[in-house]
Amino acid sequence: MNALLLATLLVPLAGIAVLYLIPGATAERVATRLGFYAGAVVLALTIALACLFDYTKTGYQGRVDWNWVPALHIRFQLGVDGISLPLVLLTALLSALCFFYSIRHAPEGGSQKAYTALLLTLEIGMLGTFLAADLILFFIFFEIVLLPMWALIATWGSGDAKAAATKFILYTLLGSAVMVVGFLVVFAYTDSFDLAWLTAHARTDVPKGAALTAFALIGLGFAVKTPMFPLHTWLPDAHTAAPTTGSVLLAGVLLKMGTYGFVRIAVPVLPQAAPTYAPALAAFGVVGVIYGSLACLAIVRKPDGDLKRLIAYSSIGHMGFVLLGIGSLTTVGMNAALFASVAHGLITGLLFFLVGGLKVRLHSARLDDIGRALYRKAPKYGVLLAFAAMASLGLPGLAGFWGEVLALFSAIRPGSGLTQGSYIAMAAIAAAGLVLTATYLLAVVRRVCMGPPATAGESAGDSTVTELTAVETATWTPLVLLTLATGLWPALLLGITNPAVRVLMKGV
Amino acid sequence: MTVASLVQNISYAQIAAPLVVAGGALAVLITELFLPPRFKQAVSWLSLAVLAGAAAPDLALWPGRTRGTFCMPPSVINVSSLSPIPKNLPGSCSYVADRFTLLFQFIALAGAFVVVLMSVSSMKRDRVPTGEYHFLLLSSVAGVLVLAGSRDLISLTIALETVSLPAFALVGLKRWSGRSSEAALKFFLVSVASTAVMLFGISLVYGATGNVHFGPVALHLAQPLTGPVRHLVYLGVGLTLVGFAFKVSAVPFHFWTPDTYAGAPVPIAAYLSVVSKAAGFAGLILLTGTAFSPLLNKTGPLLAVLAALTMSIGNLVALRQTDAVRLLAWSTIGQAGYILVPLAAHDPQSYSKHVDASIAYLIMYAAMNLGAFAVVHSVRSTSLEAYRGLAKTRPLASAALAFFLLCLAGLPPGVMGLFAKVAVFGAAAGSHLVWLAVVMAVNVVIALYYYLSWTARLFATPGELTASVGRSPTTLRFAIGLTVLVAVVFSVWPQPALGAF
Predict the structure, then answer these.
(1) How is chain A split into domains, by residue range?
(2) Contacts with A136 from chain B: Cβ below 8 Å
(3) Both ends of chain B: CA-CA distance in Å?
(4) Labelling A371: which of A37, A292, B77, B370 has CA 20 to 30 A away?
(5) Where are the domains positioned within chain B?
(6) ipTM for the predicted complex
(7) Is B498–A173 a contact, with Cβ atoms under 8 angstroms apart?
(8) Which residues, in sequence order, are CB contacts of A320 under 8 Å at separation 6+?
């Protein structure tokens, strides 16, 4: 199992090496296919990891542990447990699907070799973030993600891509730079970056005052990444500008690095400080839910509203529920946060793929250009879009439902030291947000899928949308199936996360 | 007091490195006189040999058991104002070859080695007199080597002057260029003023303590200071530190830096930004860590403010630069701010625990900054627009520059810079200077903007102003390759740099 963990990081690295060792022209031709092979191998490795994983045990499994930089007490430690395993699987799946999709639909605007290499680097960073069991190693992987994503948006993006990419990287770097200062405040009192050790000991070793400082700094870093209202402003621009695969990975995986950080590091390592900030996290989360929904409603009512931008704002809303779950400081809440994260990764990944497909066909994702009556023009496409929208609005039986409902439940009975009254109020507001979410998503379905096709006088020729291609069907089917599976049988996911969450939350 | 007790033992093994370089400097100057013009290039090889040769005795002394030479017997130490007189008087040697000294000597020798490699191919182009150039460079290096080992205020001052005086001439060596002369003059005036200020400070410290050796000075400063002497001491310590603040171009003593770097030959700018700056930091660390260590609660806050100002102003002004060398000049000011952070600790425990972060940062900074200057030197044009789309014509040099810039920014793949920053962040957090760490975090983001926009420019579509240069000369490529190698090794295995001190 140790070898498996290392291999998941080394296979993409080997892919990059091969890309740059074979002659340039050949590399350019086979780049995306090579990327897919690497991605598929990683996916197979993570599935093997899931098969070998002992679900009865808690704590890290398959530990790699090297004394990397003794001078700074940094160890190269990898491990996987019930909290990281679902996210690792999600990352490997979405990456493999992005590579597969890119074989036919690689974005134009730059070399495919560079594009594939960047995606592979991105995959290393994402997987490493979830596998790292040492704070500084976590931070390094957290940072590895930034540059490839920046380059993807800046080079292959559309619209004002450069500015969006720069905003993205400056914002998130500010977050992570502040975050590492927080880590080092913890280190100043514990002399350790070992996550497992810190989870057990930091609560007694770090005095309350320092813990409050450290939590604020670390939490700020994760809040930017998640993103938490009002630190979200980088997200809509980045998503709108990014190429399809960039948006999918940005929404599907990168945002989860923030919530994962809260669940894995901020709350369990500094439980003495968590109750102070938890109400703020929950409250900002709820504001995010309402704000995101209202922004989406505004976009759907505008004729030139951008569908990509709408999904980006809906992400802020969904991540608001995740923050509410974390802010409750309960086992249920943490499970809800993880469930909602995975569900959001599947559903929003699918939504961005679908809108990306429309953008390939119509060279625009504006509602006006997409037109109406998708059901008539491309029935399968329309149904799939409606399905994704239903999943996103939290229809029972689909993945989106459980995470958000559990988050609401957790807020009704928050952890000790938190005022129940205010949490119930927040849950009520968030529930109203759930209705708003349904409103705008149904509005999208009505606006795009239904209605009569535009008549001659109404606009200058309505768009034609071709039906799903084979590649698209193959790419999106796994996402649809998993959305159904986790929705119908939530124990599939909760069974993995719950034991690990229980252990982490023991002292909170 | 007998005459015999004043005769000092000289351990030539310990001072071998500066002796070799100083002797080498003279040898280079004389050899060049007798070489026919065709072979004048050979002087460069002689310089390289001297620098490599000087590393040998240092290697033999490693790992630096504390040794000293030019020592004063305890009987002549001025203890008149001490009560009670301590039993074991501290060492009062003028030159000590301990781990700290050897480390800074290695940095200086390696840095100068790369600088000489950079300049081999450009001497003719820049119309710089070969013999004088190498003589002055080696003389200045000899000063750095002595400075790292000096343990009394007078040796420190003389060594610092030995670093600076040849440097003025080096900056102005492009005699045909008005900018070069202007740069030299500016550098000269500012340096002389700072030296005067520093000498005044040192004289006050001497007046108050009656000693010049660091150990006894610290002993006196550790006494409770009372009366008007107290103010004299504070003023003296402050002014002495200001002298070194000029040397490391800490804000507000930085004004000479951009103009001087831009006017000087690029290898000399690299030399000033790495080797000469390292000398300044060696002096600062020696003073704050030993001679003035009892006053850390006073110097710490001073340096903390200095560090915050230095990094903030350096990075903010760097944002507006359109010239590669000027941008690097402001970036080195910003970087100097980071190196100052661990020295800002307010108490001796934190200071001695975290001073290694400064040294580690300096080692890594030397590699990445020299590398960046080497690539800039190879491109020959210093306008940032010349770098647009350079990756198309010079993929390897562009990749190297991108790597160095990301190292300076501290963003993977430049993991080396990230480690260096983590070490400094750790020092700040460990010394309970969280506010300074947060200021630094904001600065890292500001700096990222200009490093990244330069990197992005490398990979953009070439424009009209893109530099069109062919392959660089072998020596220059070797210099770049050497710095890349060091940077890559430290990125994968940073332990040697981080655990050096």
Answers:
(1) 2-504
(2) 422
(3) 38
(4) A292
(5) 295-501
(6) 0.87
(7) no
(8) A228, A229, A284, A285, A286, A287, A288, A289, A290, A292, A430, A433
